[in-house]
Amino acid sequence: MHLLSLPKDEAIVKDVISKIDYSNALVPNCTTELLEKTCDEALHYGFAAVAVFPVCGAYVAKRLAGSAVHSQVAVGFPMGNHRIETKLHEAGLALEDGVQELDMVMNLHQFFSGNFAAVEEEVRQLSKLAEGYGVETKLILETGYLDDAQKLTAGKIAVNGGAKFIKTCTGFGPGRATVHDVALLLEHFGSQVKIKASGGIASLDDAAGFIEMGASRSAGRHNIIEQLEQMGYTP
Hints:
Helix content: 40-55%
Strand order of the largest sheet: 1-2-3-4-5-6-7-8
Number of strands: 8
Radius of gyration: 17 Å
Largest sheet: 8 strands, parallel, barrel
Oligomer: single chain
Shape: globular
Number of helices: 10
Distance between the termini: 22 Å
């Protein structure tokens, strides 16, 4: 992907922005002021969603209600090693708050212990719960901990469990979105589920590259806004 510039790439920039989950407020020290600023920026530029921790879900769902920008809550962050009852309760509260998307971290303890059926059952139950609200679930594999064979095993779990997306990383672990991982997931699962590139997305150009590869979504933080401002982009 070439470096984006205006005005020649304006259509590409607009399309990429519409596929970015804006995670600027997905930080431990998030304040109400940051939530408000993040929502305002997402609405102004037209991002796909605003990603937040569960305690912020109700605020964001209300703030974005009626807009094209989805409210998105992180479930089981950041390591995924919660009891299934905890994740389901956490997800249920977010859904009752009106959240429109759920991003759930795979249970890494169960996965690395070889309890794949338990991991898949967790995905299945959460996906079924979300579907009752018309909400899609993304399963975060945390690819930085996995070799390629494990990524494929985790991908099968996501598909069989009914997740609508496979997401690479939380951004809180050792991994980051890579061309290799996104290509691997697209090759093996791209016809069955959507793929989200997440973790270490350093620029709008990075996001555009993953979208061009076939990813349906990319994560992005405030560095995306800074680049848009430098480009002189106005929605």
